[in-house]
Each structure stands twice: as structure tokens, then as C-alpha cells.
Amino acid sequence: MDTKDFDTREKIRKEENIREIDLTWEISFPVPSTYIFWAPYVKGYNGEMGVGPDPPEWGGMIRYFWIDRVLKSQITGIKQ
User: What is the pLDDT of residue 3?
Assistant: First the structure.
């Protein structure tokens, strides 16, 4: 890539960003990080926050999880 092309694109990008900022009604701030933890004996769960396009709902998701009871008893020492 030619340096002149890069400089020209950067100039256009900066001008367009400034124009878009002037047209926005609000400037959104970054969303904080979200951390999800689950026990290693919970199987079938990989950190999903929801299923499908609907808002997160545990009722719809919980049917896909299961507990590895042998692993749970090894980790916790509680027999079931």
C-alpha cells in the first residue's frame, strides 16, 4: 500500500468520524466486561446468556444443562 493512499484514507476516515459524532444524539460509553463462572460438574453450559433472539431467560436454557453427579461428589465430597 502506498503511503499517500494510507494518509488520504486516514484523513477521510477522521473527517467522517467527526461528521458522524456531530450527527449523533449521544455518545455511548463502553460496556463493562461480564464474567460468568460455573462449577466444572455443570455440563452442557458454556457461558451462554440466552437462547435465541429472546432476552436472557434461565427457564429456556436450563433444560440443556445437567449435573455430573460423580464429578460433583468427587469435588465436593458430598455423596448423593
Answer: 65
User: 30: buried, middle or exposed (CB in 10 Å: 19+, 13-18, 0-12)?
Assistant: exposed
End-to-end CA distance of the chain: 65
At a CB cut-off of 8 Å and minimum separation 6, what does 51 contact? 57, 60, 61, 64
Q: Where are the beta strands (DSSP E) in the chain?
A: 42-43, 66-67
Is residue 72 packed enough to be buried (19+ CB in 10 Å), middle (13-18) or exposed (0-12)? Answer: middle
Residues 25 and 14: their CA atoms lie apart, in Å, by 19
Q: Is the pLDDT of residue 50 over 60?
A: yes
Number of domain units in the chain: 1
Q: Which domain covers residue 69, as residue numbers?
A: 3-76
